[in-house]
């Protein structure tokens, strides 16, 4: 026969000294149903059942953490003699982690012993987690081609090394994580021409400190189609020989108001000296 216990106020069942004591209240029934909210104020709640079904779609952990505080939170799996397993939010690293751990679920932190593997299906969308197979397959289909000045394209296949080899007078060196340094190891040799990289740009040869630019051989001037514009620097050039008999001309705005002048040959200078007495 069903029985009902009704009270108009709060109803307390207390055994011994209550929560601070050692006595228990045991409900021995097929089904125990609480019609209303269930609040458990204590240090530990143990559910010893074969299965646990929860209707709530969202489970809140660390409910009273008003933070930000260094409190890890997640799910821990007891594994007996082996290290336990956990999937949790690591507050210090600010990330979710799957690990094995020496922690037993007490306290507010998880002590990682090793990262654990996570298996997932092959990704279908850009935001899906990539599997190792997907990454391996994607990287194997990638093709890298490089070319030198001769435009010959070279394919760098997976696992091959792309090496930068210095030529005559040039050395290369690699350093971690991502630097290739190309240096002139000594004087340039086997260089047949040097051209400026921009249209109408100057080519400047400049010695370091008090050194000089030395031409240790014949210096040849090609013929100019017309006289260059006078500047504050002396410009020396070649064109058809005139009264000076050399064909080597110069021009400077500070000399003769920028008028074109020709260097005089020894023969012409001697003839002028004789003629002028």
What labels describe this entry?
277 residues; mainly beta; four-stranded antiparallel sheet; 2 helices; 11 strands; 7% helix
Q: What does the radius of gyration come to?
A: 45 Å
Structural class: mainly beta
First and last CA, distance:
156 Å
Number of strands: 11
The helix count comes to 2
Written account of the structure:
The mean pLDDT is 89. This protein has a domain of 62 residues. Helices cover 7% and strands 21% of the residues. The termini are far apart. A hairpin with a 6-residue loop joins strand 1 and strand 2. It has 277 residues and is mainly beta.
Could you write a compact summary of the structure shown?
The chain has 277 residues and is mainly β. The chain has helices spanning 132-140, 266-275; strands at 73-77, 84-90, 95-101, 112-115, 144-147, 153-156, 170-175, 179-184, 235-238, 245-251, 261-264.
